[in-house]
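Fold this sequence, please.
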Amino acid sequence: MIENALILAAGKGTRMWPLTENSPKPLLPLGGLPIIERQIQELKKVGVTNVHVLIGYRMKEISDYLNNAELGLNVNYIVQEEQKGTGHAVNQAKGKISGNFYCLNGDVLIDSENLENLGKNKDKMTMMVTKVNDGSNFGVVKSKNGRLISIVEKGISGKCMINAGIFLFNEEIFKAIEGINKSIRGEYEITDALQNMPNQIHILEYKGLWMDIGNPWNLISANEEYMKNNIKNIEGTIEENVMTKGEIHLGKGSILKSGTYLEGPIWIGENCVVGPNSYLRPGTVLCGMNKVGASTEIKNSILLRGAKAPHHNYVGDSIIGENSNLGSGTKIANLRFDKKEIEVVHRGKKTDSRRRKLGAIIGNNVNTGINASINAGSILGNCVKVGPNTIVSGTYESQSTIA
């Protein structure tokens, strides 16, 4: 049994803008709870008793959250003052963790079954890999007879096997890291350390769903898939004349008001108000303190804590940031007329989301006026103001006013 784990959670997650402008990536939701909490739950299932969390960017938010969560195991923190790559990150645990340990990137989906399979390779340093249709944005892994030969970082297109960001290490990894130099990106890469250990790194294929949560729309897809295995749990209040279908999680202090119809899987956190006469469709996640009001329809979307869609709104395949409010009649389109995959402009670069349905990515503290219309693939930074009757298309930086 592997008792120790290291979660790498110090990065800025810049590709997840605007969601990570004011929040660390590991605290973004997966099925209503932070990604890192879901990881810790799975680690606990396979016998891990000590989790070491590497923190850096917005570290206090991560430590405060985990310290107040009921996790049922020991959580220790390792501070990475300066982010110098994955190899540098892992090396921060030298002298603080011993024996065999799991090592996870802080943004990967993992389940106990795969962790258990990985743990069977005890005393063998192992990298988990997974198949993807396009390896151009990943580290492509070449292996022979179940052993690592090489890793090519980004640039190989087409179907291939890639680094899944899940490892089983022991103290030998620290010796390997000492022998590496900075990469072309100016960072110390863990993949370089692994390649310096020929025939010593075993390869294990990840079974089941693996997803890269690299961009905001990936978070929608991850929740969409994760919710298929959601467990029904009703702790809130359901009034008369509420119809539910499929699995529903309803947190403490939340209420479903009369006339509301829900098609699960749906996750509703604590202290939410839904209805009257609202329609929630599969994949919807309300993270807590949310209001979904009369004649509002939410489909496969994530409302972060305190976000509101209170009057005559449609929200499809979108993320609504913390404490944002959609004015009465605000609608978010999620489908092109030609039904093609939706392109977005993200961090100044046009990117194919590879989603046929994608609404808007909206940051924290955004307010829209009545009857605002937001086109598919739009991105609004934090604290954006949208005037009444405004048509919104494209990407807007934080603090913008759209009228």
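The domain at 226-402 is CATH 2.160.10.10 (UDP N-Acetylglucosamine Acyltransferase; domain 1). Residues 35-45 form the longest helix (11 residues).
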